[in-house]
């Protein structure tokens, strides 16, 4: 593997299959031209994947409770909204059935049924447009490959791990939904007796959706491991979101990503070398604060389209190392023009944020020098501040509102909120970062862990996130809190996360500002899991026993 004069890390000629064509800009434009219209969403934020199933279960329960639809019909009416995002193949077939059910069984509430039916039709149209566009995408990619095929690299040939987690999760959700739907006799209130089965049917439907996703994922991944598959020469790099971005072979400026895919690296014997979401080791200044990797040449195995499974043989991220095999742990997700505009706006905002961050870093360094005289401090400590406690207060207010509910809604939402609070609030309310002469200490659920000064890779704030990342096997440390940047600018307030990041960065970049002593166990903070256990016990008791 070598570095070309254009700065791209190139594959050795022996690693490229014979006759493999380059996916050039013209062919790539034909592929992007086959993408669905801009009003059809093909990418979803992680928060949507988490929130949408919860909202649909609650929506099905409410439809059943208010008698808009029978339990099974309420579940079928809301599931197309999940399918439109997660499994458009299912929505294309079953959404028309859902529309028929809404119109046939929703006579008791005609206006609600009409509104719901219209929304389901919209979800069906979006799903149909998305699935229909896959055919032209496949055709454009096959034309670009010129019919050249090759077998997968030996590191992944025969290995098939995709879908295992989804199968387990789908079975669990299906069983849980069946139990909730069958337990109709435990509800005394008629509304609860109607709402709980609807929520159960919906939860079981989500489980079946996950099982379908597992089956499709496994089927598509198995298709790569049969006969030789089409191959294309492309350029790739690791994005700021730790996904692999794929570019046309002649896009040496990395101006227009075609699609992204979550991958993991396997070594020559098929063992995991890097799981999806882990960071590659730092190579000097090879990465900036956003962790964008170098541009590398790669061979793409498989036909890329929205939802496809692919494998990549790429040049290593360090010159002189052998090529690596990256197997997909997620499906292909095209990058649309709307996504590009959103990224461009985010980049402009990032530039402004970095300028403000640098100003605050310099101000923090000056303040440390003024406060100490010599520039060194005994020990630096940062902990949760008023924004974190405000977030906890909001959760408490929401819990108080839920306390007035009754029946299945209180049970489902109360236990769900308790679980989220037990996992999130301990770190949000009791986080602590301690600096000493050797590095930074971070407390967590199970105890404290250290990051030496010379292994720090990133210290930054973004929106409501404070993040510190390191090299090697140190997992990134993050904490989140609500934030209103426009209000901060209006009243001239410096968010505590901004100050914390600036002070840590000042110490990281200037060794003279670092503490001169070692921190003690008391200073580093204790494990926060006892607080989580207390919150879980208190919340569960309140849901089950309070009137």
UniProtKB/TrEMBL annotation:
Keywords of this entry: Membrane, Transmembrane, Transmembrane helix
UniProt region (Disordered), positions on chain: 266-288, 349-370
Compositional bias (Acidic residues): 268-288
Biased composition (Basic and acidic residues): 351-370
Stretches that traverse the bilayer: 46-63, 69-86, 165-186, 198-216, 384-401, 407-425, 527-546
Protein name: PH domain-containing protein
Upper taxonomic lineage: Bacteria, Bacillati, Actinomycetota, Actinomycetes, Kitasatosporales
């Amino acid at each position: 593997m070598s570095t070309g004069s254009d700065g791209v890390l190139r594959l050795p000629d022996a690693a490229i299959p014979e006759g493999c064509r380059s996916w050039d800009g013209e062919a790539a434009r034909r592929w992007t031209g086959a993408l669905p219209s801009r009003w059809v969403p093909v990418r979803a934020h992680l928060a949507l994947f988490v929130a949408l199933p919860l909202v649909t279960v609650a929506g099905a329960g409410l439809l059943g409770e208010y008698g808009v639809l029978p339990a099974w019909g309420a579940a079928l009416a809301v599931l197309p909204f999940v399918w439109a995002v997660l499994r458009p193949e299912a929505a294309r077939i079953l959404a028309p059935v859902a529309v028929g059910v809404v119109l046939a069984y929703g006579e008791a509430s005609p206006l609600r049924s009409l509104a719901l039916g219209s929304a389901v039709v919209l979800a069906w149209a979006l799903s149909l447009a998305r699935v229909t566009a896959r055919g032209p995408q496949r055709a454009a990619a096959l034309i670009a490959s010129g019919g050249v095929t090759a077998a997968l690299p030996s590191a992944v040939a025969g290995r098939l791990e995709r879908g295992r987690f989804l199968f387990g999760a789908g079975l669990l959700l299906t069983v849980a939904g069946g139990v909730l739907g069958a337990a109709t006799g435990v509800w005394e209130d008629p509304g609860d007796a109607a709402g709980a089965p609807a929520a159960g049917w919906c939860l079981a439907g989500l489980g079946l959706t996950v099982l379908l996703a597992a089956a499709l994922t496994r089927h598509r991944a198995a298709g790569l491991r049969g006969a030789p598959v089409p191959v294309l020469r492309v350029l790739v790099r690791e994005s700021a979101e730790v996904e692999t971005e794929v570019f046309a072979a002649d896009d040496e400026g990395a101006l227009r990503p075609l699609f992204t895919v979550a991958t993991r690296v396997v070594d020559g014997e098929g063992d995991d070398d890097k799981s999806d979401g882990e960071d590659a080791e730092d190579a000097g200044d090879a990465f900036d604060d956003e962790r964008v990797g170098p541009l590398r040449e790669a061979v793409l195995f498989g036909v890329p389209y929205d939802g496809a499974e692919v494998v990549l043989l790429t040049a290593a991220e360090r010159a002189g190392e052998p090529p690596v095999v990256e197997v997909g742990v997620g499906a292909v997700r095209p990058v649309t023009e709307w996504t590009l505009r959103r990224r461009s706006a985010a980049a402009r905002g990032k530039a402004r944020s970095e300028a403000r961050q640098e100003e605050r870093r310099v101000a923090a360094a000056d303040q440390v020098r003024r406060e100490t005289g010599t520039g060194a401090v005994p020990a630096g400590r940062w902990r949760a501040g008023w924004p974190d406690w405000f977030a906890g207060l909001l959760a408490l207010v929401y819990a108080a509102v839920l306390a007035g509910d009754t029946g299945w809604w209180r049970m489902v939402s109360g236990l769900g909120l308790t679980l989220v609070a037990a996992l999130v609030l301990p770190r949000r309310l009791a986080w602590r970062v301690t600096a000493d002469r050797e590095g930074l200490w971070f407390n967590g659920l199970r105890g404290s862990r250290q990051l030496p000064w010379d292994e720090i890779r990133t210290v930054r704030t973004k929106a409501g996130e404070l993040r510190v990342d390191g090299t090697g096997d140190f997992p990134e440390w993050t904490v989140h809190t609500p934030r209103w940047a426009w209000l901060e600018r209006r009243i001239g307030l410096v968010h505590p996360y901004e100050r914390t990041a600036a002070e840590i960065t000042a110490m990281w970049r200037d060794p003279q500002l670092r503490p001169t002593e070692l921190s003690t166990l008391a200073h580093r903070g204790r494990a926060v899991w006892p607080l989580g256990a207390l919150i879980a016990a208190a919340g569960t008791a309140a849901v089950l026993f309070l009137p």
